[in-house]
Amino acid sequence: MRDADWDQLFLQFIRKRGLRDVETAFTRYVRTQPQEPEDGMSVSQHAEVPQNFIEELATFAVENDASVYTDTYECLATWVDNSLDVYRPELRKLLHPVFVRCYLQLVEQDAAATAATLLSRYRARLLNSQGGLRRSVATDLQQLAAITSRHSLRSSPFATSLATSKAPVALSPFAHELLMRFLHNGGSRMLPLLAIVNSYIDLQVLEGAARGTAAAAAAAAEEELEDGEGPWGAEGEPVGDTGPAPADAATAVLVNRTEIKLGLLQGNIDDLYRDQQEKQRAEEAVTAAAAAAAGDGAGAAGQPAGATAADSLEPPTKKAKKAAEKAAAAAAAAAAASRPGQVRGERIEHPTFLPRLPEEVVAVGLRDIAARASVSASSPPSCAFFTFVNAKQTLTACAFNRDGSKIVAGFTDSSVRLYDMPTISAHHAQLRRYRPRPVVANGGAVVDGAAVATVDDEAETPGISILYGHVAAVHAVDMTVDQRLVLSGSSDGTIRVWGAEFGSCLAVYPGHVFPVWDVACCPMGHWFASGGADRVARLWVTERTAPLRLLVGHGTDVDVVRWHPNGTLVATASADRTLRLWDVREGKCVRYLSGGLYGSPTSMALSPDGLHLAAGTDEGQVVVWDLGTARRRAASPPAASHSGPVWSLSYSQGDGTLLASGGADETVRLWRNDLGGVAPGISSGGGVDAGSASPLQAKSGAAGGPGVRPASPAEGGKGGALGVDGAGRVPCTPGNGGPYGQVGRYRTKSSPVVTLQFSSRNLLLAAGPFHRRGPITG
Amino acid sequence: MSFITPAAVKAIALSVDVTRLTEDAAKALAPDVEYRLREIIQDALKFARHCKRTKLTTQDINNAMRLRNLEPLHGFLGNNDPAKFVRATGHPDVYFVRDAMVPLEQITYAPLPKAPNHTTVMPHWLFIDGVQPQTEENAAVERPPPPAKRPRLTAAGAMRGPSGAAQCSAPAGGTLGQQDGAGGRGRRAAAVATAAATPGTTAEVGGPASPDAGGTTGSVSERVQLPVQHILSDEMQRLLEQIKQILATAAGPAAGGGEGALWGDLGEPAGASAAAASLVLTPMQRAILVTMQTDPGMQQLLPYLAKYVCDDVAAGLRHLPRLHMVLRVVQALLLNASVHLEPYLHQLMPPLLTCCMAKALGPSPTCDHWRLRDSAAALVAQLCGRFGEPFYSLKVKVSKQLLRALLDGSKPLTSHYGAVVGLAALGHATVRLLLLPQLEPYLAKLQPALEARKEGLRQYEATRVYGALLTAAGAATYDKLVGAAADGLLPVHLFRAGRTHLNVPALAGSSTSQAQTQQQQQSSTTVPPPHPNPELEALWEQLRSQNGGAGPLVQVFNVIVADPAAPTARSQLEQLRGSAADPSQPSHKAAQALLYQLAKRGVGLPTPPQVPQGKVNGAAVPASGSRSQSSGGGGANATNSNAKAGTRTPTGTAMTLKAGNSGGGSGCGTRSARAILAESWREDADPGEVVWALTEVLGPPVLAWLPQPPVLAAMNI
């Protein structure tokens, strides 16, 4: 090969790699260098060229075809998906610019078909992994799809602007190192990619003491901007909604635009109860009216509805029957409006795959609703805390039955334990009676060394049954709705079902390959869901040991699984900082929630009306989404957030006016939920600065607008996404705590709050292990 | 940005016997190793999070490795002590864990660990209708602030991204909030109460369990200290301030004076003057001490006073008057009948023991800290005596500590002195039980210091220790002998004849030191000057006057005195002793008198003269005449080494002693002094043997401590 040929090839190589500076230098060098005859000097120069470099050049010359780009791009995408969790978000930012450049390169090479394949693959991937396209991405794709030939490439302002500018991508140092190693270790195959990265992408390596932190924060902020949402996400629209009209149908198919039915089932217990009440009231009203009609008007004064009816029934004549009907209707309306436990939203038909609740469960449920305390920000609930003593660091999960008389707890020693609280309390009381100690004289059961020592004198405390069967740490426990079965998921990759009465293992579900992180029972029974480290959530029925649905799509471990109150949807939260809602019937993703999660989610709760989803992260943040519109509705400001992972979240029963959160920072916090059925304009005015909210302040603030909840009965009936949409228009600023202001903050003695749950009568039940040395936050 | 450097890879390779790792290979391996490490850490963090923990454990790492089908690391589970990393030599950034060799038997035969406590559930109200009740279950636990992290370790936190930083700040925020809560509750009293919370709490929780609950709270991991609210009235607070102030100011001027003297003078006189000044109490001080002795209200102030004692001792180790004052305070509190010191014993004991056994007390080593040690020891003994009933282990623990200090060769002699004094103060039984068995080995160690050529501080201190030992041992034996004699079990001849009085203990030190000095000068042991015995004096006068100063006995006396080292003198001496020991000989009385006189001049066989039984009678010889003779010349102090060698054999003397005894088993005669002393605490220990052994070990001066026959006679009657 002649020298000039080499020069030419080398020049091309440099160009391909995008090393412009080198290119100019080289051309200058070639021009200035006089053409010398071949002599020993140049031969020795040839010899100096490393052998592998020549090989690279050669392969470059050979493989300079179109498929290289698609292949290497796929390679990069796969690599990014399998990289370390911490750096994946940063690296993912790289994908889009690289893709765009790849596409343009392909068009440049007149490989339009390949380019189209790449584009469709890319879109499919995005839709798969993110459930939709962001607006900016959708625009880009649209523009790109229009560029199909070299000619259009030249004429397109979009392409020229891309060709002249560099896309900035912020990376933390280690992520940068990872990328560089990937690109360089790939050998000649990666050369086109390396060229693109070198020439079109501006890698900004963020140095700093807190490696990873800065980059992640920057990435998160960028994500925010890309989302086009403010920090409170009030005005953000779903992706691609308001953008330019989508050119192709694919862009419009968005997961978040799937129609879903968030309403409760017809004939759920709350409705049953309400119906009963209405019937009763109507009967009362009728009798009262009849009595009034009979001239005994004072007899019905006890019932307010009856009283109004009596008032309106002054003329006691032949119109009595008609008036009585009217009064009954009014009473029913009043009852419907003023009933605190009433749940908004439309009702959906009971699907066939869900069983009906057993009669006794319904009966108990009705009783509980009748006795349910009405809690709200102005009338906060009470909380019973169950301290696990001598549990050290082994308590991992905990679940209560409907009234807290039974507790199921999972431990790292692979045991599941059932605690029967009445028995245990009686036993403790007996101990105290027979062994009076000075500590007890000071007041009650005391969690301290002396008390603990005395308790463990007894070889066996009654009321505790230990269920052995798992061979690794238990990470999740749950109880079925009829309180008969206990489910547990463990690190050994199995789920076990235990009979709560006898404490025997009834079945093993060996579906997960990797640890099971969470299990959740369907509120209607029969079904349950699980999620684990294999990135898959599974849906099971108790009578089959193979899963019925696999919910695939999360990029990393599925950390939390929760059921929608209507039993037809399942929500999952994953360490890839996204949450998804799945349809049980079809097993496909119907909502994709991301953005604004600083840290991976550690807990999740769905509001009783099924319209909202709250998630807590390991950074202590609590974020609330509206499921209908897939928009974030509220996020706790950093000042009011937990200072450690939020282990548990729970909405109050009935109308869900309160959200309770408990975390590793040993606090239980209460948040008021003004989103449901209440005009938020009123509440945002009365909101207090949640950042500095001490319980008292928050309470007074909440008490400042006492009429908030009862004042808007009319909107309660409206229900559904409409009412929420109306609420969403109101701008919420972070300053006033937004629709989720903090109501109270309560410290435990020294126990991280592992589980929180509102009992069916709205007593807040919480549990946690006692650590003398405090939060293990290092 | 990588933490694993090629150098580290090479070092690790070396550690697993891969010696031929090239630089390139290390360079290629390092990033990969780091990537794998990060993967494992990432998975381990997942496990930690799903175990609802925020701290990574070794179990998590193992789980993560199992998740990736790796062999888990063995040997790191269950041991709570953090791995100790050692820097590899030659590599600045390579650390490894020191792996100790553990014998398998040690593990297999180790006792099983205590079964963990049963996990159970205790319910309580966290809040009721949104209001948190201020119960103990809700009171935050007081925690020490988290130790500052080393900067290197924060690098590991970077792995977790932003979460690391957030959680570092978490505990700080938590403690702050918790303090706020406490402040709201306790008002101004809380400020005072926090200081006293610890003693108050242990008093509540520990209760009757043990006095040293405070010492054990730290080790019991799950022990809770309830912040007990201790409200102190304004008046009491003012009184407390006043007390502290006056006690401090009283010490202040003296200290000022001492320091003033220090400017121009040596440390010793300054210290002495300060010490002297400290003895004088101002009227206010006296009044306060009296108040402390009598006022029932002191109980209220007790936690603070106990803390004052601790603090003052800790702060004033170089300041003798302050320490004396502290001792007085404790003494006063002890005397106060309405004050219950029991819950604070664990707080008071350490400062007192410090006063007793500290390495250095006072401004300089030459000042008179001995007295402070003595009185501290007395106080300790008093406390032990008074609270020994409810806390039976108190005395045991204190004496054990003292003994440990004494036997610890690394401790200075001053500490040893304190230990001896303390043991002595704890009672004769303690001395016999603990001190006497250790006497012989300890003295062997002390001997070099005693016999040092150069007279220095160390020798002086050694002498003090020796004196203290002597006092302790002597007093203990005295007690034993007197007791035995009271029971009529003891032959009177065991005791030194001619003793008229017992030395005051405080003087013993100085007298023995003199004796020691003499010994040093002669570099050999000698007969100690006997205690004055008017009876023998009178006899001697009689002898001299009888023959006009030229009787045979007097001549013998003169011969011996002229040259005590001569063989003739020795034989004569032995003869004399023989006759003195034999009551049947007519001249034994005279021989006794002669020996006595010789002994007064330091001449004689070191064995104590045997006084015949029953013959010594205080009333027999009328005391007449006065001590006419001059105390012998200095030259008369020489002792023949033969005598020493001859009489110092254990068997011989023991037999001599035993001869007068009830004629017990002769087999015991071969036992060494150490064995005898080791058993001296027994009830049936032979007093004769003990006395002999003591003489062996401590030298003859101990005999001066033994009771005199008249006392015994009186007791016998």
TrEMBL record, chain A:
CDD domains: TAF5_NTD2 (cd08044), WD40 (cd00200). Pfam families: TFIID_NTD2, WD40. GO terms for cellular component: transcription factor TFIID complex. The keyword Transcription applies. The keyword Amino-acid biosynthesis does not apply. Residues 64-201 form the TFIID subunit TAF5 NTD2 domain. Residues 716-726 have a biased composition (Gly residues). WD repeats lie at residues 467-508, 509-540, 551-592, 602-635, 639-671. It is found in: Nucleus. GO terms for molecular function: RNA polymerase II general transcription initiation factor activity. It comes from Volvox reticuliferus. Keywords: Nucleus, Repeat, Transcription, Transcription regulation, WD repeat. Residues 220-247, 297-325, 682-744 are annotated as: Disordered. Residues 297-310 have a biased composition (Low complexity). This is TFIID subunit TAF5 NTD2 domain-containing protein. One of its GO terms (biological process) is transcription initiation at RNA polymerase II promoter. Its main location: nucleus.
TrEMBL record, chain B:
GO terms for molecular function: protein heterodimerization activity; RNA polymerase II general transcription initiation factor activity; transcription coactivator activity. Keywords: Nucleus, Transcription, Transcription regulation. GO terms for biological process: RNA polymerase II preinitiation complex assembly. SUPFAM superfamilies: ARM repeat, Histone-fold. The keyword Transcription applies. Residues 2-68 form the TATA box binding protein associated factor (TAF) histone-like fold domain. Residues 174-184 have a biased composition (Gly residues). CDD domains: HFD_TAF6, TAF6C. Residues 135-219, 508-535, 604-669 are annotated as: Disordered. It is found in: Nucleus. Residues 189-209, 510-526, 620-630, 637-646 have a biased composition (Low complexity). GO terms for cellular component: SAGA complex; SLIK (SAGA-like) complex; transcription factor TFIID complex. The keyword RNA-binding does not apply. It holds the Pfam family TAF6_C. Belongs to the TAF6 family. This is TATA box binding protein associated factor (TAF) histone-like fold domain-containing protein.
